[in-house]
């Protein structure tokens, strides 16, 4: 989960300033590329490790198959990404394609020069992508982004601790009440917390907010109004979700400020992201399994979407067309299946997620991905607003007071509502 939080806005190493000059093509370089008959397309992303290596290998494959286009890549540390992108926008040296966290899309769109991707991608291809993801890039009548990777949250648990507590490791909880009961049994029998919760705001709030939204939505609530004009969580549904967390904390099932126990093998379970399956696949720290998220009585199955989206900048018509050609190739069946299998990302295209080839691969190679794949049809996106990072932090800072026991649920929700509405009001000025 910590890796995920870093991927949502969130932490990374500093980027040397000298890299700023090498990422966007200078006018001279653009002219030279045009003169040679090869259109150069620069791509920024923040992936590292296996994800970056896989992407670079795919870029090499594209370049070998398309002699008229040369795609180059630059990996920018997550924490520096938006700052560097804004600096590039100011100096008119934006890359041709930006690939970043989906919650960044509204902020990047505010920089200007976002091309309408629907004009360079086939409409049938766009229609095949999970609508919750494509809707995130629909801004001011344009489709400014397209998803290239997906993830979501599911219930991950330690099978060994389940056995030690006398629980059946093949029967994970399906409801909130079962989660409480099993979590308490793990605590009583092993002395270890039964369920990890992200209860602190931290540096940006999103770990708490992103996880809490799942339970809020499961209870039938909403985070913001449909037009993102004000907070919508201070409702009976919001109180139900917050009280669920408080009850877990008070019972010792989810001790306050204890996130990380599960990932160290010292906790029974947690709400974790699909990326953890890939991280642990080669060398799992303990015997773990995955199930769809438990739901409240009378509630509904839902999870929170994550992933990266690609945006094309309108640097010139030839580059936009070439960038569109690359993304069309990348999103094609063969490349998408290869990408998802090698990285552990969840398919963003419905036909691939439901297709026999990909699902057979999951069943044969990594069955623990299947709950995440199945949950994509229930997945919901966070509010599509450039103010979201500030909103997330404002919400988390107030709600952590309830989880710490300093405020009641009602008091924390009321304060969080005011804090979020203040952020929105200031953003309108």
UniProtKB/TrEMBL annotation:
<keyword id="KW-0813">Transport</keyword>
<dbReference type="InterPro" id="IPR006059">
    <property type="entry name" value="SBP"/>
</dbReference>
<dbReference type="Pfam" id="PF13416">
    <property type="entry name" value="SBP_bac_8"/>
</dbReference>
<comment type="similarity">
    <text>Belongs to the bacterial solute-binding protein 1 family.</text>
</comment>
<keyword id="KW-0732">Signal</keyword>
<dbReference type="GO" id="GO:0055085">
    <property type="term" value="P:transmembrane transport"/>
</dbReference>
<protein>
    <submittedName>
        <fullName>ABC transporter, solute-binding protein</fullName>
    </submittedName>
</protein>
<feature type="signal peptide">
    <location>
        <begin position="1"/>
        <end position="25"/>
    </location>
</feature>
<dbReference type="InterPro" id="IPR006061">
    <property type="entry name" value="SBP_1_CS"/>
</dbReference>
<dbReference type="InterPro" id="IPR050490">
    <property type="entry name" value="Bact_solute-bd_prot1"/>
</dbReference>
């Amino acid at each position: 989960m910590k890796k995920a939080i870093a991927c949502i806005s969130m932490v990374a190493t500093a980027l040397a300033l000298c890299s700023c000059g090498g990422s966007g093509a200078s006018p001279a370089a653009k002219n030279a590329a045009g003169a040679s008959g090869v259109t150069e397309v620069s791509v920024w992303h923040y992936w590292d490790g296996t994800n970056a290596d896989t992407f670079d290998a795919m870029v090499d494959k594209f370049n070998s198959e398309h002699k008229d286009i040369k795609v180059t890549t630059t990996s920018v540390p997550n924490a520096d990404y938006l700052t560097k992108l804004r600096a590039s926008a100011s100096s008119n040296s934006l890359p041709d394609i930006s690939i970043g966290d989906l919650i960044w899309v509204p902020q990047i769109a505010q920089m200007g020069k976002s091309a309408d991707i629907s004009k360079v991608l086939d409409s049938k291809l766009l229609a095949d992508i999970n609508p919750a993801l494509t809707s995130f890039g629909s801004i001011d009548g344009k489709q400014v982004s397209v998803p290239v990777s997906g993830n979501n949250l599911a219930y991950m648990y330690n099978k060994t601790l389940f056995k030690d507590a006398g629980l059946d490791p093949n029967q994970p909880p399906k409801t909130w009440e079962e989660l409480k009961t099993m979590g308490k049994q793990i605590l009583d029998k092993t002395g270890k917390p039964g369920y990890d919760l992200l209860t602190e705001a931290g540096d940006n709030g999103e770990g708490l907010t992103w996880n809490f939204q799942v339970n809020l939505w499961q209870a039938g609530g909403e985070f913001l109004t449909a037009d993102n004009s004000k907070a919508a969580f201070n409702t009976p549904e919001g109180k139900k979700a917050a009280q669920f967390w408080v009850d877990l904390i008070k019972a010792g099932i989810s001790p306050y400020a204890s996130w990380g126990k599960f990932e160290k093998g010292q906790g029974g379970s947690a709400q974790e992201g699909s990326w953890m399956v890939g991280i642990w696949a080669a060398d799992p720290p303990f015997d773990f399994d995955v199930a769809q998220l438990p739901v409240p009585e009378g509630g509904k199955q839902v999870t929170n979407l994550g992933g990266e989206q690609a945006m094309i900048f309108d640097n010139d018509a030839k580059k936009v067309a070439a960038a569109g050609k690359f993304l069309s190739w990348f999103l094609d069946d063969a490349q998408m299946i290869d990408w998802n299998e090698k990285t552990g990302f969840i398919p963003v295209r419905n036909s691939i997620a439901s297709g026999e080839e990909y699902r057979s691969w999951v069943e044969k190679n990594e069955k623990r991905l299947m709950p995440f794949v199945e949950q994509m049809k229930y997945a919901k996106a966070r509010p599509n607003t450039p103010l979201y990072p500030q909103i997330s932090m404002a919400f988390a800072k107030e709600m952590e007071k309830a989880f710490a026991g300093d405020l009641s649920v009602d008091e924390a929700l009321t304060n969080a509502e005011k804090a979020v509405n203040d952020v929105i009001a200031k953003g309108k000025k």
